[in-house]
Design goal:
The chain has 17 helices and 26 strands. The protein is globular. By secondary structure, it is of the alpha/beta class. Helix content is 32%, strand content 16%. The structure holds adenosine-5'-triphosphate. Adenosine-5'-triphosphate (ATP) binds next to strand 18 and strand 19. This is Protein kinase domain-containing protein.
């Protein structure tokens, strides 16, 4: 990087940092070092050329002044910087119009700072700008001419003091718009109703679709107050008022419904939770109940009901046949001899409810073990099919696939017992990390490679039996006590219809499936793996994004040139993860989520490709395989 650019960057940071102490350590940012060679904190450079691509300081407690002229008047920085991301600090801005010189800028994020004043008109000359987030500041004045920027896809400006009307954005191009809680007024321009009311709420002067207040009540020159009340007395409410009041009535009714539903739910949760179906729980529903989620299962009556109606097995082998009062204990020597009564008596805590049942954390004092018990509802697989599936799964072991250690099966109940995994799921890791902690690239790549390898093994072993995972997703990837990822619930659930293929209920219909259907069930696992890879790369949850697409559809819709700035998790960019390898992994993920199941690669090809990327990454970093790292 040129000396003049280094000088410019250092002055920029001096202005930015202010007097308060920073909340995170910062290295580099000295005139005798190079931002690209010496990995300055917050700087990411291009892979091929030594020039600065992005400057990111989020939540650093920066309390100085953002002066874009210091960097944007340097020609080489102005020609290279694409991302400036300074959210969640205490910054004020000065000479913001100079930002227009950073012509390559695609992302500008300064939310949650103390910026004030009018947004300079010159910023609308940033022709490459894609995403702008100036929310939670004190910007005032008009929204400027941002709509002129044809490629703008995100305009997030809520919680400021912006006034005037909303300009005519090309709404069909926007993926995200939020101007709520400002002082904007007038009608929402045509096409603005593509966004929900929440994007506009909190601007008393705004009217029109999707807000409940129609513009007819506001647009005509308002008559004097006296005249208005006279008119009203004479004519009763006009059409616009009727519309407005019915809008209010609807909103009121909706709120009423929500409250009623919540109250009902509350009542229901006050009923005791238990691992047995309602009809078989012999406890009186009037019984007082501790509303905490810690539950003690079952009275003697309950046990006798379940026991009398069920087949209960014991021993290390399913073949050993029924023995009273124990579960079928399959694998773990630690839980050998675990008895059903023990499970029922142990205190349990609800971990969560999924689509197919609830999972409880159960503490078995006698065995000194923490277990996770999944109670499955609506599973119509007959007992003998269920047992033979368990038996088959019990013979296929992989270190990264969590085994069922015991199970219980009656007509009414199916319980699956796992060892409790103390470190949560990948879903939680990716989408529920406390701010400031990052899940670094090599760990993500490690997770991808471990899961792909384990899935390849399971598919190979269980293809003949027609047993795919069936419900692979990030909440079913759990971290064990060594922070190693493992696949949970292999082969137990119905196939999730995530790739829009005709729903196949593997569990209920295995025997009736033809080979093509079985093959497409395995291909659905590949789709699911692709979604997990996308979650790892984007840091985004798999559900519908705010543009109405799910994660896979959204990523596929982004053109390759935009991957770096649009798709990849900003934490990875910030960390300086290799763009080339992220692109390679993304290409694999995109193949996995191909709409046509036949075009998806085989699991063995995928495992190999991911492993190659991982090896390359390890070579380049010269880091020996470390299990996992969370950095503050
Ligand atoms: N063995 C385990 N150890 C620790 N936590 C677990 C274990 N098994 C499941 N969980 C956690 O319990 C919660 C509920 O799990 P569950 O499988 O019911 O939900 P889900 O995966 O969202 O839905 P489903 O699998 O029914 O589609 C999840 O947060 C999951 O990560």
């Amino acid at each position: 990087v040129e000396v003049s650019s280094i000088d410019a960057l250092v002055s920029f940071f001096e202005n930015l940092s202010g007097n308060l102490s920073l909340s995170k350590p910062v290295s580099g940012w000295a005139r005798d070092s190079d931002p690209c060679e010496h990995n300055w904190t917050g700087i990411v450079c291009f892979d091929q050329i030594p020039s600065v691509k992005s400057i990111t300081f989020e939540s650093f407690n920066l309390s100085g002044t953002f002066k874009p002229d210091t960097i944007c008047s340097d020609t080489s920085l102005a020609a290279s910087i694409v991302v400036i991301s300074l959210g969640d600090n205490n910054l004020v801005g000065e000479n913001l119009e100079a930002l227009a010189e950073c012509k390559k800028l695609t992302h500008f994020y300064v939310s949650r700072n103390r910026f004030s004043g009018v947004i300079p008109e010159s910023l609308s000359h940033l022709n490459n700008l894609k995403r702008l987030d100036i929310s939670n500041n004190a910007f005032s004045g008009p929204v400027s001419s941002f709509p002129r920027i044809s490629g703008l896809i995100e305009f997030v400006a809520q919680n400021n003091r912006l006034s005037g009307s909303i300009p005519e954005f090309d709404f069909s191009n926007l993926v995200n718009l939020n101007v709520s809680n400002n002082d904007l007024s007038g009608p929402i321009p045509p096409g603005g109703d593509l966004f929900p009311a929440a994007s506009y709420l909190g601007n008393p002067g705004l009217c029109g679709n999707p807000l409940p207040n129609s513009c007819e009540t506001q647009l005509p020159t308002p008559p004097s107050a006296a005249q208005k009340s006279d008119d009203r007395k004479k004519d009763g409410p006009n059409a616009a008022e009727v519309l407005m009041y019915s809008g209010y009535a609807l909103v009121g009714f909706g709120l009423f419904l929500v409250i009623v539903i919540k109250l009902c739910k509350k009542k229901r949760t006050k009923k005791p939770e238990s691992l047995v179906e309602e009809g078989h729980d012999t406890r009186e529903s009037k019984e007082p109940y501790d509303a905490s989620e810690t539950l003690t299962f079952a009275s003697n009556e309950f046990r006798s009901v379940v026991m009398s109606k069920s087949e209960v097995f014991a021993g290390n082998s399913v073949e050993s046949g029924p023995v009273s009062s124990s579960l079928i204990v399959l694998t773990s020597p630690e839980v050998n001899g675990l008895r059903f009564e023990e499970l029922l008596k142990a205190p349990a805590e609800l971990l969560g409810r999924g689509k197919y049942g609830s999972v409880y954390k159960v503490k078995c004092e006698e065995h000194g073990m923490m277990l996770a018990v999944k109670r499955i509802k609506d599973w119509s697989l007959g007992s003998s099919d269920f047992k033979s599936r368990m038996k088959r799964l019990n013979h296929v072991k992989h270190a990264s696939v969590l085994p069922v250690v015991a199970f219980y099966c009656s007509k009414q109940e199916k319980l699956l017992v796992y060892e409790y995994q103390p470190n949560g799921s990948l879903l939680k890791f990716l989408h529920g990390m406390p701010t400031g902690q990052t899940f670094d690239w090599s760990s993500r790549l490690g997770v991808a490679s471990t899961i792909a390898e384990a899935l390849a093994f399971m598919h190979d072993e269980l293809r003949q039996d027609g047993i795919p995972h069936g419900n692979l997703k990030s909440s079913n990837i759990l971290f064990n006590k060594n922070m190693e990822p493992c696949i949970s619930e292999y082969g137990l659930m119905t196939i999730d219809n995530s790739d829009n293929s005709p729903a196949i209920d593997i569990i209920n219909n295995t025997s009736q499936l033809n080979p093509d259907q079985i093959e497409s069930a395995f291909r659905a696992d590949i789709h699911a793996l692709g979604v997990i890879l996308l979650e790892l790369l984007t840091g985004k949850p798999p559900m519908v994004q705010n543009n109405g697409m799910d994660l896979a559809k959204w990523v596929v819709s982004v053109v390759k040139e935009e991957w770096t700035v649009e798709v990849f998790d900003r934490a990875l960019i910030r960390e300086g993860a290799s763009e080339e390898r992220m692109v390679n992994l993304l290409q694999i993920a995109i193949k996995c989520v191909d709409r046509s199941p036949d075009s998806r690669p085989s699991i063995n090809q995928i495992a190999l490709m991911i492993n190659n990327i991982k090896e390359e990454d390890e070579r380049s970093l010269d880091v020996s395989e470390s299990p996992f790292e969370i950095r503050n």
